[in-house]
Amino acid sequence: MEWHDEGLIIGLRKHGESSVILEVMTRAHGRHLGLVKGGRSKRMQLLLQPGNSVSLVWRARLEEHLGLYVVEVTDLRAARLMTHGASLQGLNLLAALLRLLPERDLHPALHEAAVFIADQLDDSEVAPALLARFELAILADLGFGLDLSCCAATGTMEDLVFVSPKSGRAVSRTAGEPYRDRLLPLPGFLLGEMGDRPLPADIRDAFTLAAFFLARDVFGPRGLTLPDAHSAYMVALAKPR
Question: Are 100 and 134 in contact (CB under 8 A)?
Answer without folding.
Answer: no
